[in-house]
Amino acid sequence: MNKKKKLDEREIMEMYKIEHYGFWFMFWALLASIFIQFIFFDASIKQVCGEWVVFMIAAVASSIAYYRGGHYDYSTEPGIKSYLMYSVVFTIVFDAIVAIGLYVHHNYYNITGFIITIVLFAVMLFVVLFAALAIIGEATKKRRRKLEEQLDDSNDQEK
Amino acid sequence: MDLSQEQLAERVGVTRQTIGMIEAGNFNPSIQLCIAICRTLNKTLNDIFWEVDDNE
Q1: pTM higher than 0.90, yes or no?
Q2: Residue B15 buriedness (CB in 10 A; 0-12 / 13-18 / 19+)
Q3: Given an 8 Å threshold on Cβ–Cβ distance, is A10 in contact with B21?
Q4: pLDDT tens string B1-46
Q5: Which residues in chain A have their CB less than 8 angstroms from residue B30's CB?
């Protein structure tokens, strides 16, 4: 059934804007809530698994939709500079959170061991983030080329 | 054509607020909506939407 929209285009744009901010607020708040429970309240995986599933569905669904449309990011283009920047920033932020959580919940008698753990975690996190961003970024570039080719083909057919 | 914002909005199929915001430059309408407004007012896109600079 084709439902006729009761809103005009300005109202629809405003609704999209509200939903956009709502979505991103919920997305990051959900991640923060998972981290806070996991690290500061020593929650088990079972306790945060519901939120984690919702978070992952939102993340994967958005990533697929972005890829299909050939979108990458609001402020950067896919490339080494962007992958490096996001990987470094997120590694520092998440590693700091994990370090605080570990320090609060575990009695570290050996500070060298604690530092090695944190550094190894940071390296692992950086590699995973960089690889994930590089895969997504390069796939997006490929997708953009494909979409442009499709556009060229349809323009040629129209002529 | 002497139309109020409300009458124009009703004929075009948008809210009065939308027409007001277009007039005030606070909302950029799509080309389809621009055309709908022009058709209703029996004017061209240039007549309604082309802004002439003082220097021109």
Answers
A1: no
A2: middle
A3: yes
A4: 688 999 999 999 999 999 999 999 999 999 999 999 999 999 999 9
A5: 9
